[in-house]
Amino acid sequence: MLKYLGLGQMDDVASYPREGGCQCGAVRYEIQTPPRKVYVCHCRECQRQSASAFGISVRVPSKDFRLKSGEPRRWTRATDSGGTLTCNFCPVCGSRVWHGDLQVDDTISVKGGSLDMPVNLSDASHIWTSRALRGVIIPERTPKFLEEPDAASRIRGCSCMGFSLSRHLHCLFQFFLLSFFA
Protein backbone atom coordinates (compact mmCIF):
# COMPACT_ATOMS: atom_id res chain seq x y z
CA MET A 1 0.00 0.00 0.00
CA LEU A 2 1.36 3.43 -0.93
CA LYS A 3 0.58 6.64 0.92
CA TYR A 4 0.70 9.97 -0.94
CA LEU A 5 3.10 12.39 0.72
CA GLY A 6 2.76 15.38 -1.59
CA LEU A 7 5.09 16.77 -4.24
CA GLY A 8 4.66 13.58 -6.26
CA GLN A 9 6.33 11.34 -3.65
CA MET A 10 5.01 8.12 -2.21
CA ASP A 11 5.95 6.26 0.95
CA ASP A 12 5.41 2.55 1.23
CA VAL A 13 3.11 2.27 4.26
CA ALA A 14 3.23 -1.51 3.93
CA SER A 15 6.94 -1.34 4.77
CA TYR A 16 6.11 -0.94 8.47
CA PRO A 17 7.26 -2.04 10.91
CA ARG A 18 10.73 -0.69 10.12
CA GLU A 19 13.92 -1.47 11.95
CA GLY A 20 16.98 0.54 12.71
CA GLY A 21 19.90 0.86 15.05
CA CYS A 22 23.22 2.37 15.83
CA GLN A 23 26.27 2.29 13.57
CA CYS A 24 27.85 -0.82 15.17
CA GLY A 25 24.58 -2.74 15.59
CA ALA A 26 24.70 -3.08 19.39
CA VAL A 27 21.44 -1.08 19.78
CA ARG A 28 18.53 -2.21 17.58
CA TYR A 29 14.90 -1.04 17.52
CA GLU A 30 11.65 -1.38 15.60
CA ILE A 31 9.03 1.24 14.70
CA GLN A 32 5.51 -0.16 14.27
CA THR A 33 3.82 2.72 12.38
CA PRO A 34 4.71 5.43 9.87
CA PRO A 35 6.07 8.65 11.42
CA ARG A 36 3.73 11.40 12.52
CA LYS A 37 6.14 13.98 11.17
CA VAL A 38 9.67 14.24 9.79
CA TYR A 39 11.89 17.24 10.51
CA VAL A 40 15.16 18.31 8.98
CA CYS A 41 16.75 20.39 11.73
CA HIS A 42 19.45 22.95 10.96
CA CYS A 43 20.14 23.97 14.59
CA ARG A 44 23.72 24.06 15.78
CA GLU A 45 23.20 21.11 18.16
CA CYS A 46 21.95 18.86 15.33
CA GLN A 47 24.91 19.94 13.20
CA ARG A 48 27.28 18.96 16.02
CA GLN A 49 25.48 15.71 16.84
CA SER A 50 25.31 14.55 13.21
CA ALA A 51 28.72 16.00 12.25
CA SER A 52 26.90 17.28 9.16
CA ALA A 53 24.79 20.17 7.88
CA PHE A 54 21.58 19.06 9.64
CA GLY A 55 19.89 16.30 11.63
CA ILE A 56 16.81 14.29 10.66
CA SER A 57 14.16 13.67 13.31
CA VAL A 58 11.42 11.10 12.71
CA ARG A 59 8.57 11.72 15.19
CA VAL A 60 6.85 8.51 16.30
CA PRO A 61 4.55 7.62 19.20
CA SER A 62 6.56 6.15 22.08
CA LYS A 63 4.13 3.23 22.24
CA ASP A 64 5.04 2.30 18.63
CA PHE A 65 8.80 2.16 19.32
CA ARG A 66 10.30 -1.10 20.59
CA LEU A 67 13.90 -1.58 21.67
CA LYS A 68 14.97 -5.00 20.32
CA SER A 69 18.53 -5.22 21.65
CA GLY A 70 21.17 -3.29 23.49
CA GLU A 71 21.04 -0.89 26.39
CA PRO A 72 21.52 2.69 25.26
CA ARG A 73 23.04 5.30 27.50
CA ARG A 74 21.35 8.64 27.92
CA TRP A 75 22.13 12.17 28.84
CA THR A 76 20.03 15.31 29.05
CA ARG A 77 20.92 18.67 27.61
CA ALA A 78 19.34 22.12 27.45
CA THR A 79 17.64 23.13 24.20
CA ASP A 80 17.70 26.48 22.41
CA SER A 81 13.97 26.84 23.09
CA GLY A 82 14.53 26.66 26.87
CA GLY A 83 13.52 23.04 27.46
CA THR A 84 15.51 19.88 28.01
CA LEU A 85 16.16 16.96 25.68
CA THR A 86 16.92 13.36 26.64
CA CYS A 87 19.44 11.91 24.17
CA ASN A 88 19.77 8.11 23.80
CA PHE A 89 22.95 6.74 22.24
CA CYS A 90 24.90 3.51 21.81
CA PRO A 91 27.47 2.98 24.59
CA VAL A 92 29.75 1.11 22.16
CA CYS A 93 29.94 3.31 19.03
CA GLY A 94 28.38 6.53 20.39
CA SER A 95 25.74 6.85 17.64
CA ARG A 96 22.72 8.90 18.65
CA VAL A 97 19.61 6.72 18.14
CA TRP A 98 16.64 8.69 19.49
CA HIS A 99 15.65 11.71 21.56
CA GLY A 100 13.04 11.55 24.28
CA ASP A 101 12.08 9.44 27.26
CA LEU A 102 10.05 6.35 26.31
CA GLN A 103 8.55 6.18 29.83
CA VAL A 104 7.44 9.83 29.97
CA ASP A 105 7.02 11.32 26.47
CA ASP A 106 4.05 10.54 24.21
CA THR A 107 6.28 10.93 21.15
CA ILE A 108 10.00 10.55 20.55
CA SER A 109 12.33 11.63 17.74
CA VAL A 110 14.14 8.74 16.13
CA LYS A 111 17.32 9.88 14.36
CA GLY A 112 16.58 9.46 10.65
CA GLY A 113 20.00 8.15 9.72
CA SER A 114 19.62 5.25 12.16
CA LEU A 115 16.79 3.63 10.16
CA ASP A 116 17.75 0.64 7.98
CA MET A 117 15.29 1.86 5.31
CA PRO A 118 15.56 5.67 5.10
CA VAL A 119 12.48 7.85 5.36
CA ASN A 120 11.18 9.97 2.52
CA LEU A 121 12.26 13.60 3.10
CA SER A 122 9.97 15.05 0.42
CA ASP A 123 7.33 16.01 2.98
CA ALA A 124 9.72 16.96 5.79
CA SER A 125 9.57 20.35 7.49
CA HIS A 126 12.86 22.25 7.79
CA ILE A 127 13.32 23.86 11.19
CA TRP A 128 15.91 26.25 12.60
CA THR A 129 16.58 27.45 9.06
CA SER A 130 18.01 30.63 10.58
CA ARG A 131 21.06 28.47 11.38
CA ALA A 132 21.28 26.56 8.09
CA LEU A 133 24.78 26.40 6.69
CA ARG A 134 25.50 28.56 3.65
CA GLY A 135 25.06 26.56 0.48
CA VAL A 136 22.38 24.23 1.87
CA ILE A 137 19.49 24.36 -0.56
CA ILE A 138 16.04 23.87 0.96
CA PRO A 139 13.37 23.06 -1.64
CA GLU A 140 11.15 26.05 -2.38
CA ARG A 141 7.79 24.44 -1.58
CA THR A 142 9.00 22.82 1.65
CA PRO A 143 7.60 24.06 4.99
CA LYS A 144 10.36 26.14 6.61
CA PHE A 145 10.64 27.69 10.05
CA LEU A 146 13.31 30.05 11.34
CA GLU A 147 13.24 28.32 14.73
CA GLU A 148 10.89 25.78 16.36
CA PRO A 149 8.38 23.67 14.42
CA ASP A 150 4.95 24.93 13.48
CA ALA A 151 1.76 24.47 15.49
CA ALA A 152 0.39 21.92 13.01
CA SER A 153 3.09 19.42 13.88
CA ARG A 154 2.67 20.14 17.58
CA ILE A 155 -1.06 19.51 17.32
CA ARG A 156 -0.22 16.13 15.75
CA GLY A 157 1.67 15.10 18.87
CA CYS A 158 4.90 17.04 19.30
CA SER A 159 5.66 18.27 22.79
CA CYS A 160 5.09 21.99 23.26
CA MET A 161 4.54 22.18 27.01
CA GLY A 162 6.46 24.92 28.74
CA PHE A 163 6.15 27.49 25.97
CA SER A 164 4.62 30.88 26.72
CA LEU A 165 1.16 31.90 25.51
CA SER A 166 2.72 34.36 23.05
CA ARG A 167 4.78 31.49 21.58
CA HIS A 168 1.62 29.39 21.17
CA LEU A 169 -0.18 32.29 19.48
CA HIS A 170 2.80 32.81 17.17
CA CYS A 171 2.73 29.12 16.21
CA LEU A 172 -1.02 29.10 15.69
CA PHE A 173 -0.64 32.11 13.40
CA GLN A 174 2.04 30.24 11.40
CA PHE A 175 -0.26 27.19 11.25
CA PHE A 176 -3.10 29.40 9.96
CA LEU A 177 -0.88 30.91 7.27
CA LEU A 178 0.39 27.50 6.20
CA SER A 179 -3.12 26.06 6.06
CA PHE A 180 -4.49 29.03 4.16
CA PHE A 181 -1.70 29.30 1.59
CA ALA A 182 -0.89 25.59 1.17
Task: Give structural notes.
The chain is α+β, with helices and mostly antiparallel strands and 182 residues long. It has one domain (2-148): Beta Complex (Metal Binding Protein, Guanine Nucleotide Exchange Factor, Chain A). It has helices at residues 44-50, 151-155, 165-181; strands at 2-6, 9-12, 18-21, 28-31, 37-41, 55-61, 65-69, 73-78, 84-89, 96-99, 107-111, 125-127. The strands form three sheets. It has a seven-stranded mixed β-sheet. Strands 3-4-7 form a three-stranded antiparallel β-sheet, with no helix packed on it.
Q: Major sheet: size, sense and barrel closure?
A: 7 strands, mixed
Number of domains: 1
CATH first level: Mainly Beta
End-to-end distance: 26 Å
Q: Helicity level, as a percent range?
A: 10-25%
Proportion of β residues?
25-35%
Give the strand line-up of the largest sheet.
8-9-10-11-6-5-12
Number of strands: 12
Shape: globular
Number of helices: 3
- CATH architecture title: Beta Complex
One letter per element, helices H and strands E, the order comes to EEEEEHEEEEEEEHH
Low-pLDDT segments: 1-10, 151-171, 175-182
Radius of gyration: 16 Å
